[in-house]
Amino acid sequence: MPVTDIGIDLGTATIIVYVRGKGILYQEPSVVAYDRDANQILAFGNEAAQCIGKMPGNIVGIRPLKDGVISDFVVTERMLRYFIRKSMGNWNILKPRICICVPGGVSDIERRAVEEAAYRAGARDAVLVREPIVAAMGAGVDIMRPCGSMIVNIGGGVSEIAVLSLGGIVISKSVRIAGETFDTAICKYIHDNYGVIIGSQSAENLKIQIGSVESAPNQKQMQVTGRDVDAGFPRNVSITTDQVKEAVAPEVRGIIEEIRMVMEKTPPDLAGDIAQRGIVLTGGGAMLKGLQSEIERATGIHTLLADHPQQAVALGTGQYIRAMSDFERAKRFH
Prior knowledge:
CATH class of the largest domain: Alpha Beta
Structural class: alpha+beta
Radius of gyration: 21 Å
Helix content: 40-55%
Low-confidence stretches: 329-334
Number of strands: 18
Order of helices and strands: EEEEEHEEEHEHEHEEEHEHEEHHEHEH
CATH superfamily of the largest domain: ATPase, nucleotide binding domain
CATH topology of the largest domain: Nucleotidyltransferase, domain 5
């Protein structure tokens, strides 16, 4: 079946590609391996991530998105083109329609840059939709109802907090506290308390394996290897769940405070709806253990984690494309 519709969650840390009729095909790091000496890109996604740090010093990793927006347009275009063509296969003759999500706070200039990158990458038509809308759709929220819904999408580089009603965004805020912020906080904690420097990948592994926002009665422990600041040699340290909790606590409090500020600006009737319907969490950063319960405890509002939080935005782009197709079909028959 020829590929005609593609949905892309172009995230700071991860790019997720949805193809209509096939579901999510790719979920890979938003990174490219670049050879500085030859001035060329060597690999994208998983292949690039495997290369970085294990090849000569002239091979570096480039993340073309920073804090949820494009920082390197040329590399972003090349990365989009790679994943679009990878999704289409070699024998697809139809240019696809592409739906790409963008953070709620992007400027018109940034939106045009993303659209241009999609067209240059081979799109027949490029549709940009704001991230909170597709995140809510991917989480199963009926955004067309005349009542308030709050979505908190915690991505890799930025978190989006939004109140939706009747298919639109009533109020939203982009916050530069997200999954990578948690990793940085863990790195800083280990440096300050142990005098050991660890990489972001090691910090992410700690977060995923033993990380929690809640105090655990049965402490998990994990060993991590880094470089001793004074000696310069590798050194192992053991980190517990409570230590990870202590490291990320300021960032968690920051997200909760931003949620509270958005709620304060929400019209009273919609705030009442949210109190009844709850807060919905999406994004890979929302998977930090105990975060859902901590937000509920701090706000007093029932908080739910989406069934597939990391893939919610990509799934939402697929639903958005289907809704567009149904609308266009209906217009042709009327």
